[in-house]
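Aim 2 progress update. The chain analyzed this quarter is reproduced below.
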Amino acid sequence: MIQKMTPKENNCKHILEVCVDSVESALAAAGGGADRIELCSNLIIGGTTPSEALLKEVRKVTDIPIRVLIRPRFGDFCYTKYEFSIIKEEVKMFRKLGADGIVIGILKPDGNLDINRIKILIKEAGGMAVTLHRAFDVCKNPYETLERVKYLGIDTILTSGQKNHCIDGKELLKDLVEQAGDKIEIMIGGGVNAEAISQLAPYTGARAFHMSGKKEMESAMVYRNKEVSMGLPVMSEYTIWRADEEKIREACFVLDKVSDTK
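Predicted structure tokens:
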């Protein structure tokens, strides 16, 4: 079992979080030196809520802190009353299972943060760490939303600077880091790798980064029926995405190096 203290416990200057949707990827994250895992399912579509069994299996092989993504479906972050009920129950379930934190986000139809619902989820979290995920990147006003997040007491915002790729969002990211001060951790995601960290860490002042570090792998299946597609035609079910330990190690190395110069 790989053991690693959290950055706060270890007084680290930075955080590298790796988003994983399998035990194999969790092991790669740990082996590459990640400080924390965001656990999800279906990473290929941006991530959905993982199963109880997946959390338990990952816990068997690593002691790295785990924040669990709570997202009932693919798509936007405006949820029905039934979806919200599911989200609330899943927060409660993962708290009881011993997750270190949750990753959540709910917007109202007008693009503003759904403060009332998020308050309920924070209460259900019962002291667990809380990350506002990239619902932030599709909110109406990021500066106003950041102030609302401060009010809610959320400790981390995951954002690409409201762009598809974090490099393109660097100006907003820099503003957000300055506005957040020491109240909220701005964690940069969306295309993060070693090169992105080397550019963005000194430019924005951010100390937290989020990556998947994924690579394509061929399925172990030898027999393949080419007449049947089990999913979307544009996606091959014989291609598997997993975290690449070497990509994560490279990112850790760059983040260590940049942090040492501050």
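The CA atoms of residues 45 and 221 lie 23 Å apart. Residues 1-10 have pLDDT under 50 and may be disordered. These observations will guide the mutagenesis experiments scheduled for the next reporting period.
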